[in-house]
Amino acid sequence: MNDRSPGAGAEQVPAPVTVLAGPTAVGKGTVSAAIRARYPQIWLSVSATTRPPRPGEIDGVHYRFVTEDEFTRLVETDQMLEWAVVHGRHRYGTPRLPVEEAVAAGRPVLLEIDLAGARQVRRTLPEARFVFLAPPDWDTLVDRLVGRGTETPEERTRRLETARRELAAESEFDVTIVNDEVPRATAELAALLGVRDLT
Ligand code: 5GP
Fold it and tell me: What pLDDT, in 10s, does the model give residues 69-84?
């Protein structure tokens, strides 16, 4: 099932784990940041990554920044729920234990990960809900990617190739949220997790 209409799925029963994926630069990070700021009831997984921090990123908040050796150790000791090489470069993964603890504590759990990671979670946690964050259209996605200005031209090309592949995967997801306006998309996602604005 996949319904692009606004609010689609909002009345469904919340799943214990919700996976948010979507193409690069669609605004997953922005929506996650808005979730973190506005909906503290939602438990947001902190991924481990071998990517170096960008300015302003805080270790343990935005990511757990680890060395290649540390990441390998986490994978080999089965501490990752899923992991993937993203954009052909750095490794990103979801530490398993904190997710299990948050589910056990009854928190609504949100994982913001790439498509390859979402497919792994689909295999290991089929009861999770899979949400695709989509751009209003392709040109908007390109504008956002170019406008961000944090990547080199080679990196940008690589990310656009990834984005084309990822856009084609929308039908694999249970629900699509169109990121036309961040506050609206964020509220729609929070409603899917069973959390509503108090205001
Ligand atoms: P960025 O480097 O811009 O923060 O993130 C790049 C990509 O990595 C994004 O598409 C994001 O969804 C993905 N990503 C972040 N954390 C994880 C994770 O734990 N697992 C997987 N598979 N992808 C992740």
Answer: 999 999 999 999 999 9
